[in-house]
Write a structure and sequence with these properties.
Length: 243
């Protein structure tokens, strides 16, 4: 994985933040995110910052803070290994960085799903309402921005959830599984349930995957998310399998 400044001379991408840059390097070099070779990643990251300076690109403080963090992790990884029984209890110096990268990747996935849903909406054209009497009109589907706000409120409640274990474990949650769980929950609730009931239990990571699963079901038009009136209860309703 030989990365030199020459590779950045002709095309230097602009990144919104240090996590985006780190994720780019990890994906580009097919690095195992759960077992990051911190010395190599640090070298590549610093090479990139140096290339940015050479091309007069602004290096914000957040990039420098991450550089210091990587160097600190690298120095901790170079310390002599302790006895086996002590090392089992000692936290991996890379743990916090891995957790931040995993959370960044999940929320990036959320933004990608929302973007694809927004693109899908552009293909729909509204029409004038028919001059016919309508009875028991169901609530309109909830605006995506309000749905995201509702999810953020749920996440804020979970902010003080259980402390993660010392060893980072692979993500055990899959969108497809969570989609099935939402369907089962809706069936047990008679086809309708409150939005917050879908996020009643689980860690922050699990809740993010559940939210992605809900967005996918909305995209497939298998469920709708409704709010009868402003500030009212948000409801998830089953619409059936769509072919």
């Amino acid at each position: 994985m030989d990365v030199t400044n020459k590779k950045y001379t002709f095309h230097l991408e602009a990144f919104n933040g240090p996590l985006e840059l780190l994720m780019h390097l990890i994906e580009k070099n097919k690095i195992d995110i759960y077992d990051i070779p911190i010395a190599e990643l640090t070298r590549q990251y610093l090479d990139y910052l140096e290339a940015m300076r050479e091309m007069d690109m602004e290096v914000t403080s957040s990039f420098l803070v991450m550089a210091a963090t990587l160097l600190q992790i690298k120095s901790r990884m170079m310390l002599p290994k302790k006895k086996a029984e002590e090392s089992e209890e000692e936290e991996d110096p890379r743990q916090e960085l891995v957790e931040r990268l995993l959370e960044y990747r999940r929320f990036k996935k959320v933004s990608e799903v929302l973007g694809s849903m927004a693109d899908l909406q552009e293909h729909f054209v509204g029409r004038a309402p028919l001059d016919l009497p309508v009875h028991h009109l169901p609530p309109a589907s909830l605006d995506l921005s309000l749905l995201i706000t509702a999810f953020r409120e749920v996440m804020s409640i979970k902010e003080e959830a259980e402390i993660p274990a010392a060893i980072v474990q692979p993500e055990p949650y899959h969108i497809e599984d969570k989609m099935e769980e939402i369907k089962a929950a809706l069936q047990s609730h008679g086809g309708r349930m409150r939005f917050e009931d879908a996020f009643e239990r689980g860690t922050r990571n699990e809740l993010v995957v559940t939210f992605l699963a809900l967005l996918e079901l909305i995209k497939q038009q298998s469920v709708s998310v409704e709010q009868a009136h402003l500030f009212g209860t948000i409801t998830i309703a089953w619409r059936g399998e769509k072919k």
